[in-house]
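Q: Sequence in, structure out?
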Amino acid sequence: MKKKRKTQKNWLKTGKYAVLTAILLLAVTQLGMTYHTNDQYVPIRVQNGDTIWQIASVAADNKTDVRSVVNDIIETNHLNHDQQIYPGQTLQIPVTASRADTVRQTFAAP
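A: Exactly. Output:
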C-alpha cells in the first residue's frame, strides 16, 4: 500500500512539472505572436498639427492595434510617452511593406 501512494505522489509531482512546462511554452510562443517585426522604417517630417496618434493611425493596417504602433514609434525614436513632437522634427516610422507607400504619400512635405 505504501508503494502505491509513493508512486501516486511521484506522478502528481511529475504532472505538476509537465503542466508548468506546458504553460511556460504557451506563454513564450504567444509573446512571439503578439510582437510583430516591421519590415522597414519610413522617415517623415512632422508638420504643424501632426500627432503621434495620427501618424500611427496611418501606419497601422486593419489588423494592427494603433496603440502598438504608437508605442513602436515612441520606442524607435527614443521619445518619452509624454514628450511632444514638433513641426520640422524627423521621425522614423516603423511600417510593414504594404503600408510604406501610404505613409510616404500621406506625410509628404508640401
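The beta strands are 40-45, 90-95.
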